[in-house]
Amino acid sequence: MAHLSGTDRSQLLLLPEAVDDYVGPDNPVRFVEAFVDGLDLAAAGFERVAAKETGRPGFDPADILKLYIYGYINRVRSSRRLEAETHRNIEVIWLLRHLKPDFRTIADFRRVNRAAFKLVFREFVILCRQLDLFGRELLAVDGTRIKAVNNKDRNFTRASLAKFIREADEKLADYMKRLDAVDADEEKVSGGNGSGGDLAEKIAAIKGKRDRHRALLDELERSGEDQISLTDPDARAMARMTKVGVGYNVQLAVDTKHKMIAEQEVCNQVIDLGLLAPTVEAAMDTLGVDRIDAVADRGYFKIEDIEACEAAGITAYVPKPLRGPAVAQGFFPKEEFYYDADADTYTCPAGQTLRPRYYGKLRENVKVIYCNRKACKGCGLRAAPVLYFQILSRRHPP
After folding, report:
1. Is the pLDDT of residue 326 over 70?
2. 146 occurs within a structural domain
3. Which domain holds residue 251?
4. I want to staple 89 with a disulfide (CB 3.0 to 4.6 A). Which of 14, 85, 161, 264 is the partner?
C-alpha cells in the first residue's frame, strides 16, 4: 500500500482556500483579535492611533500590538523573530492580514509606546475580573530577576569606584618613581630604549581612567544612588542563584484561583524588602477589593511593610527569617529561647532554665551571660550540632 501523498504545490485551484480556514474557532489568536479591537488605544496613550492625512501610510498600532501580544503568549520577544513570524506563521498571517512590518518598525513601536503597555495589562486584568476568573481572596507575591543589556563591567558601585581610584593612585605613584629613575639615568635615556616614553603613556592612560571613575563617583554623590550603570542607566547589580548580574527586579502578584497575574511591576530595587505592600495595594486597586490576604516568602519580612499592609486592609502571611551568625553556625536561633522578665531567666529548647552569670569588675562594664552548665553537660541535644547558645551579652545597667 502506498503512503499518503500531498497535493501538487503548483496545482491551480479554481476556488483558493481561505486563510481563515487554517485558524480554528478556539485558537487564542481570535481572542487577541477581539481583545485589541475592543481597546481604546488613544486613551491608553498609544502614538499615531489616528492616521495623518498626508504622507506615506503607516501601520495601525492595533496590528503591531496584536503581534506583540502574540509574541508574549508564545515567548517570542525578539523584534527580528517577530518579523520572521509574519512571513511563515499562518496564525500571524491571519492575525495581521498578510501585513509584514520589519523589525525596526516593531522595535520602534515598543520604544515609543512603552508606558501604554501597562495600561493594556490593566485592561486585560479588568476583563478577566468581569469574567470572574479572579478569586480576589488570596494573592501570592514573589519577585524574579531579569537581565538587562548592561554588562556588569559597566556597572559601578561606590566601593568599586573607590577601590579603582585607590589602586590607580598606587600605580601612578609607582610609575612616577620609575619615571624619575629613568630621567635620572641619562645613559638609558640617551640609549633610546623608549622606556621613559612608555611610562609617560601609561601614566596618562591611568590618569584618564582615574578621572573618569572620579567623575562617576561624584555623580553617585550628587544623585544619592548606590550604583551607576553606563549602558542601561536604570539597571542595578543584583544577586540571582549565587551569581551577580545587572538587571531588574520584577514583582508579581498572582491570584490563586486560576494562577493568573493580577499585578506586575518592574523596579531596580536589589532586594524585596518593602515591596510587599505597594505590590498588593496595586493589585487590590485593579481587582476592585478593599481587603485581601497575601502570602510571600521570608525575603519580604519587614516590620514597617507588614504594618503598611495592615493599614491598607491586607492580611499578610510572611515567615520571619532566621537571621544572625548563630543560625549560620548551626546554633539555635534566639526565638527558641523564652525569656521570663520577672525571674530574669531564659528557658532553652530542652526545657532547662538558664540563669544569669555576671562577668567583669566594674559595675558599668559587667557582662551578663545566661547559661546552665550542669544541665548542658547532660543535655540530650548535645548529639546535635547545637551544644549551647549564648543568649545575650550585654552591659549590666548601673
Report:
1. no
2. no
3. 236-317
4. 85
